[in-house]
Design brief:
This protein has 177 residues and is an all-alpha fold. 76% of the residues lie in helices and 0% in strands. Helix 2 crosses helix 4, helix 3 packs across helix 4 and helix 7 packs across helix 9. The relative contact order is 0.11.
Length: 177
Amino acid sequence: MMEEDNCQEYLAAFKKEDFSSFSSFYEKTKRPVFYNIYSLTKSYEDSEELLQETYVRFLETLERIKDGSSLLGYLMVLSRNLTLDHLKKRKHVLLEEEEFHRLGEEDKHSFEASSLLSHIQKVLKQKEFEIFVLHVLSDRTFEEIAKLQKRPLGSILWSYSNALKKIRKELPYETLR
């Protein structure tokens, strides 16, 4: 996980058009950004595409980012907005079609994980699912999630607790192993 001080060093370098550390920055930030996108799309392919689009847009808008701003927070908001725009454009595509096309492209483990996540998503409300994904898959702390979603920490903890109760109730134990 990235420290904000380190993020500010990256921002300063990028604004001076020194992109020699971009690869390191990308590796440190891509996981939470990817799962932020995946929590909305439920599609690995779309998430990978939108992840790349997020970083391209990030580089295009560097000058608009204020010094001292949270870069990871900026990336999370940017990725969420790009994903929501993408979903609006592809509103007619059925989830079942995407699952069918992915069958041949993903290995068995990835498909099982994807199916499990899809099932969990059906059980949870959207906000609960986002919190679950950010905490479990992106290793974000509840405090970080509260800041990203601009919600009180107590609300985040309550939503996560409710999400776990729903998952335990709706999914058989064998599925969660």
